[in-house]
């Protein structure tokens, strides 16, 4: 595999050549990074043509991500997402301790009256992490016998350009904390995607055949993840 960067119409595109059959172009949140996976023998002018044909779509995707990149103030009344559903944030003041809970169609955040935006954000993220720690073992334990693999370790972290990663040698997978704002079908898709890497390291024909076999609707889930 080899990687290089080009610029087309002011858009920086990262091109990664792989032993795959078809060209894949994606725009990644949160900053609209454009990446192309191309077959090893694919001519550069053909790659340019494919990118140029989708240039308007790329611009639309980048604009959509840009409009989504607001920094919530974590004030009462703001809308927050949890597992793909919108909830109204309600802040409560208390003198000691802090916690976050989901009550009907609202997220209740208990913190000091003088808690800063950053402190409330950390509380929400800590709650997301706690909920994700409860969900991941269920998903992993379900899929281990289905795929015939074992995940020896897993972790959660904030990632800017990836939804997950897999260390094949250590049998360890990492998941992006931001997946907790997406529908659970998206979280499950990323979990399966990373676990399939324990069977096939590369994004090649065999990898996608395994995805088709074990999770036939993975493409729809991937689209949902990218568009949600």
TrEMBL record:
Pfam families: YgjP-like. InterPro entries: UTP_pyrophosphatase-like (IPR053136), YgjP-like_metallopeptidase (IPR002725). Residues 25-227 form the YgjP-like metallopeptidase domain. This is YgjP-like metallopeptidase domain-containing protein.
